[in-house]
Model the fold of this input.
Amino acid sequence: MQEMPMQDTLPKEYDHKAVEQKWRSKTDGSVYQFDWESDKPQYIIDTPPPYPTGNLHIGNSLNWCYIDFVARYKRMRGYNVMFPQGWDCHGLPTEVKVEETHGITRHQIPRSEFRDLCKELTLKNIRKMKDTMKGLGFSIDWNCEYVTMDPTYYSMTQKSFVRMYADGRIYQREGPVNWCPRCGTAIAFAEVEYEDRETYLNYLYFGAGDCGDDGNGSQNLEIATTRPELLPACVAVAVHPDDKRFTRFVGGTISVPLFNYDVPVIADEEVDPAFGTGVVMICTFGDKQDVRWWIEHNLPLRMAIDRDGIMTSVAGNYKGMNLADCRKAILSDLESAGMLYKQEPLEQSVGACWRCGTPIEILSEKQWYVKVDQDEILSTADEIDWVPSHMLIRLENWTKSMEWDWCISRQRLFATPIPVWYCKGCGKIVVAKEDWLPLDPTEANPPEPCECGSEDFEAEADVLDTWMDSSLSAMAVSGWVFGHELKVPTQLRPQGHDIIRTWAFYTILRTHALTGKRPWDAILINGMVFGEDGHKMSKSLENIIAPEEVTDQYGADAFRQWAAIGGSTGSDIMFRWKDVVAASRFQQKMWSIIRFSLPHTEGVGDIGDIDKDSLTTIDQWIISKLNSLILDATDAMENYQFDITLKMIRSFAWDILADHYIELVKHRLYGEPSPNQQAARQTLGLIIDSLARLLAPITPFFSEEVYSQLNKTGSVHAALWPTADESMIDSGIEQEGGRIRDIAWAIRRYKSEHGMALNAPLDGIKIYADVIFDCSDIAGAANTPVQVIAGTPDFEHRAVGVKPDMKVLGPIFRKDAGKIVKALSDMDPNVVAQEVQSGTIRIAVGSETLEVPADSVAIEREVVLGGRAVDVIEVGGAVVVITR
Ligand SMILES: [Zn+2]
Ligand SMILES: [Zn+2]
Done:
C-alpha cells in the first residue's frame, strides 16, 4: 500500500486517558451555561437530585448519560439548555449513618448539633459524587446547583407548605397512618413495599371461653388470624351477610379470648367466606381493610401497639412486650387455654418500610397530609409525553389505587421543619407567614403574638417528608430556587421507573397545585442496570460494577457508549464488559480513520465550497449516505433512541467509510492535484466533521479532540448539530454507488485470493453492465484500466486441460490404462473436447485406435474473450472480466 510521508500526525493509538484529562482541564463550562435572558427556546431538564450517599452508582450513571446525551444534543440544536444538579439531602439514611459514625442516638445531643453532623456528612458525600459526575463528562451547569438542606431551598419547601395550607390542600388530622416502628416515624403509602412472607394462620375460638362443642347450639365462633398479637386491638368480628353459617351471630356480641371483653358481630360484603373460617376479626389496625371497616361501621379505637412497636396497657398482661414476644406469649396462652385449635403456614403479602424492611403498623396518630386529587393528577399526567409511553399506565394505576391522602409529616430530625406552632392560649394552629421563612419553629417563636393575644407557643417538632423537598424540583430549577421568574413547564424529566409513584407522582401533584401547570413537557424513564450475570446488582451477589472501574480502564467515552448502546431507553439493561471493549475498539477505529484523513482534509474549507461537478459517483454515494445518516440520527435523538443513533453512526463509519469509501478514493488522495482530488478531500472533510458532531453528545471527549484536530474554532459542543442536505440524498446514486462498492470489493478479494498486492496492476478490467457508469474510482482503486461496456460479453470457453478419471478407465483397460492416460495428456485438449462432444474419445495408442467413453475424462476450460483468457466475476448484476 502506498504510504504518505507523515506530517505532524496523531499518535497511532488513541490515548483516552490523555485526551479526557486534557479536555477535562481545558473546559471552563461556559458552553454549558443556561442563559436566563436568552432569546433561544428554553430546554430545562428537571434532573434528579440524588440522595448524597457518596456513590454515584452505575444506575445513576446510566440515567445521567441519557440526560447528558439529550442536553448536549439540544444545545447543538440551538436550545438554551439547563442541565442543573440538585442534591436531595434530607432523610433517614444520613441520620442513621451519623448515629453509627459517632456512636450516638439523635436524642442524645441537641437537635441543631445533630443536624450539623448530618450536614457535614452530606457535604462530604456530595463532593465525592461530583467527582464521578465530572469524570463521566456530564455537561452540568454548576451555576444551577441546588442543595435541599440549604436555607434557600428549604425556605421554598416551607413556602409551598404555607401556600398549600392556605389553599386547603394541606391539613392536619388524627387518624390511621402507616408507621415504621423501627424508624419511629409515619410514612406515606408510596413508602410501603409489599413483600411475600411466610407466616402462620392461627385458628382460634372466640366466644364462651372454653373449647366449644360443634353442635348447633354453640356460642363459639372460629376465627383464623395471622396477627394473634392484635387480639387486644380487636373491636369487632365480621362475617359475610349471605353466609348462612353465621347468620344467627350477626347483631350479637362475642367475647375476645384471653382478654374477655365483648365485641359486636357485624355483617359486611367485603368478608371472603372462603378464607380461613369465613369469620374475620377487625382490629385497629391490622391492615387497610381494617381501617375501611373501622370507618364504615364507626367502631371504637383500641391502640394496642405504640410508636416503638411495644404493646400498650390495652394489651393488659402483655404490656411492654415487643410484637414478636407478645405474639409468642399470646399463642402459648391460647394453646394452654385450649383456644388455639389449628395452625397452618400461609404465604402472605406484608407491607414493609421501604427503607429498613420492617413490617409497618397502622397507628392512629395526628399527622399532616397533602390532599390527593386523583382527577387532577390523571389529567395533568395525560398532558405529558411519557417515554416509553407504557410508563404512563404505571402512574395511572398508582394514582387510581390511592385511597389515602399523602402523609407528609415525619417524626425525624434531619429534614425541613414544618413552619407551624400551636398557641397554648387558645389551641389555634399558627402557620408561619411567607416573609418569616426560612425558620425552625423549635428554635424561635412567631414574631407576633397569636390572635388571642397569647405569646405562649408550642413548636411543631415534626418535619416534612423529603419528597416535599424534591417534588418541587421542576419549580426550583425553572426559577424558584435561583431567584428568577418561573419557567414551568420545564421540558424534560428524566428518572427511573422505581420512583414513578413517588417523585413523578408528587412532582405532578405539587407543580399543578402551586402553578396550575404541568411540571414537564416530557418524561423520559430509564431502566435499571443488571449485572453481567443477568441479576440486579447487589452486594451479596458481588456483581456490582462501579463506573470508576470502567472509566479507569477504558475511559468515560467508552462507558458512555455502553450506556447508549446497552439497550433501548426505558428497558432494563445489562452491564457488559464486551460492550465497553467494543466501544473502545470503535474509538480506535475512528481514530485511525481520522489519523488517515487529517493530512488530506487540511484547509479544504466548508462543504458549501464543494464543486459538485467534480464529485465522482462514489463521492455522491457517500454524501447521500451521510445525509441519510444525519436524518435518521436526528430522528433517533429526537426520540431518545440513543442505541439506534450510535449503531447507525458506527455502521456508517466502519462499513461505509472505512471499508469502502476510503479504499475507493485513496488513489485520488495520493494522486496528482486535480478537481477530482479536491472533491475527495472535501468529501472526506465533510464526513469527518459531521461524524465528530454526530458523536459529540455520546463521546464528548473524543469528539472535542477530533474537532480541535480539524482546526475548527471553538468547542464541538457549541457547534451546530449537522443538518441533512436532502437534495443530496439520491436512491439512484446510492444504488449505483453500491454497485461500484461491490465491484471494487470483489476485485480486492480476487487479488488477495490470487496472492497479489492490493495495488498490483492487472492487465485490464472490462465490466459488462446494463448501463454505462462512472468506473473511475474502481480503476483507481484497482490500479488497472477499466472499461464499462453496456451489454453482455461474448465469451468462448477454451479447453485447457484433460483430467482422466481412473475410476472409469481402470476397470475397462486394466494394465493399459496408464498408456491411455499418457496418450490423453499428449493430445490437444481442444481435440479431446471435440471427441467428448461426439460421445466417445478415439485415441491413437501405438498403431491402434482405442475408443474411450466420454465420461472417462473431465475437460478443464478457461473463459476466453477476444482471444485472451480471462477471469470472470459476477457481482451486482454486472459481469467483471479480468485479464491478468
Ligand atoms: Zn423503617
Ligand atoms: Zn391563641
Notes: Residues 1-7, 209-216 have pLDDT under 50 and may be disordered. The first strand starts at residue 42 and ends at 44. Residues 24 and 137 are 8 Å apart (CA to CA). Residues 180, 182-183, 353, 355-356, 358 surround zinc ion (ligand 1) (CB under 6 Å).
